[in-house]
Amino acid sequence: MALSPAVQQRIDTWLTPAYDADTQAEIKQLVDSHQDDALNDAFYRSLEFGTGGLRGLMGAGSNRMNRYTLGMAAQGLSNYLKQSFPNEPISAAIAHDSRNNSRKFAELVANIFSANGITAYLFDDLRPTPELSFAIRHLGCQSGCVITASHNPKEYNGFKVYWNDGAQVVSPHDTNIITEVNKITDVSEVKFEGNPNLIHIIGKEVDDAYLAEVKKLSIDPAAVRAQHDLGIVYTPLHGSGVKLVPPALAEFGFTNVSLVQAQATPDGNFPTVQSPNPEEKSAMQLALDQAKAQNADLVLATDPDADRVGVGVKNDQGEWVLLNGNQTAALLTHYILSARARTGKHQPHDFIVYTIVTSEILGDIAHHYGVTYYRTLTGFKYIAGLIRELMGQQQYICGGEESYGFLIGDFVRDKDAVSACALVAEMAAVAKAQGRTLYEEMQRMYTQFGLYVEDLISLTKKGQRGAEEIQEMMKNLRQNPPKSLAGSPVVEIRDYQTGKLHNLQTGTETPTGVESSNVLQFLTAAGDKVSARPSGTEPKIKFYFSVKEPLASIADYEPTHKKAEAKIKQIIEEMQLQ
Ligand SMILES: O=P([O-])(O)O[C@H]1O[C@H](COP(=O)(O)O)[C@@H](O)[C@H](O)[C@H]1O
Ligand SMILES: [Mg+2]
Q1: Which of the residues 182, 260, 302, 526 could staple to 241 if both were Cys, CB 3.0 to 4.6 A apart?
Q2: What does the alpha-carbon distance between residue 161 and residue 143 come to, in Å, rounded to a whole number?
């Protein structure tokens, strides 16, 4: 592929002395070996804010995570913060995960903030993302950030940016920050030289304050005391969860927690897994093996920045199985809402939130307990946005999403796998006290609300070509939407890009009620649902499937589950996704 003049110009700029020798050497090596595709992918655009902030492969180039792209982002953010809070001292908290370069990048951002007169509260070591969100509120900062690429493979890193309420930035701040970043045309505009007087190292005092809040989330401390020796195997997958998940479980009163030692040391190479993602079975294997060997009751896992929680339980055959994000979110929502109802804590203004690609069982559960529920676009920042919007009018109880994110209470404004681990363990303890496993609790829940079976297919399509292919697939789906799925006619098409819900039976159109996003949903007469959207954090297109079957009793669980799975398989084949 020939390089466009714009790409060539960017490459030439990056080969000037404004960029360090290593950066230049890395680019030169690609130029000399004529790797045009690699050069194009590294330079064809600038890294953009996606679902979870800035995220990209580490390396040289405008479309890569490196000290220059991060430096420009931090400088743009500094400029925007000074515009947004013109007459007050500004401070920002900074955290990072276990990735290679994460500490270095966190220090770089602290230097840039301080050089711009912004007080930087930098954590002394790696920390979970939810603690950063907490720290912003706790320290009264205007902003904050985490250096992390979450659960992405080791080659990636990223920059999650937060506002003064502890939530990741959404419109208009996200686009305004990008505008400021784009105004920086020359890397010499970035103030790399830090002011040590404005950099404060934080650590244990914030941990303690955060853990004290987490402890208050316990609903049934007596049950935990009675089952304190519940066998828990926990893996931080080489990430930051190791800092706070074991202390949080200890605060709740659990005494029998064993770590997966091979994954307990933070390591940016994530040597025992392909991807440090609790969504992936292979990443959970060591923990499951250990749980089996120890005859434990529960497996818990967190991703490198400890905002995603993975759960493993024993099924009715005594085999270890993993819960998906919908199942964990549904169990937690059910546990929390039913406990609030039982103990008289339920208030008329309570609400829960989930995203449009998350299981509708969450809405059914909320409805059952008389709790208001809202749906947002994918991204926990939208859930946090709703908490902010409804502050003072309604009371946020909990929220969750299919991608293993959950948040209980509002002292953190991002998904929190630390508090979620503690509550999942409590749920398992309460179930055990009644002679049941979490798996049985889940089956019982499905007999009450119907069996929801969900599945996800992610197709990876890398680089500029991949991105174009993904756009093409979305376009094709818009032009040729499926007419039926698994034998049931499609009765509604939701296009979140145009903002319209099309009822195909009545011909009516209603607004989606959320901002525009490239998401399509197809709903059938049978109540099944398929959603399609490009990922905002990885080079992937995602297809979400949801099928619902009535479930009269636990005895019918297996055959009903098989039937639902077969239906999903059929839909996947019909849509030619496999
Ligand atoms: O990656 P994380 O854990 O920071 O999580 C972020 O990305 C996930 C995947 O987004 P996408 O489907 O666009 O890739 C979102 O579901 C989540 O709300 C967001 O906080
Ligand atoms: Mg994460």
Answers
A1: 302
A2: 7
Per-residue pLDDT at 348 = 94
Ligand nearest to the CA of 130: 2
Ligand 1 centre to CA of 542 (Å) is: 12
pLDDT for 53 equals 82
pLDDT of residue 121: 99
pLDDT at 108: 98
ipTM of the complex: 0.95
Mutate which of 49, 461, 537 for ligand 1? The one with the most ligand atoms within 8 Å of its CB, which is: 537
Reduce the DSSP state of residue 232 to 3 states and report it: strand
* Ligand 2 centroid, distance to 466 Cα (angstroms): 24
The answer to whether the CB of 43 falls within 8 A of the CB of 7 is: yes
**CB-count burial class (<10 Å; 0-12, 13-18, 19+) for 129:** buried
| Pocket lining: 174 vs ligand 1, CB cutoff 6 Å | no
The 10s digit of each residue's pLDDT in 352-399 is: 999 999 999 999 999 999 999 999 999 999 999 999 999 999 999 999
CA 474 – CA 491 distance, rounded (Å): 19
Ligand 1 within 6 A of 531 CB?
no
Low-confidence ranges of the chain (pLDDT < 70): none
Per-residue pLDDT, 578: 79
Domains, the chain? 45-202 (3.40.120.10), 210-449 (3.40.120.10), 451-574 (3.30.310)
Give, in order, the Cα–Cα distances in Å from 270 to each of 198, 385, 496: 33, 32, 36
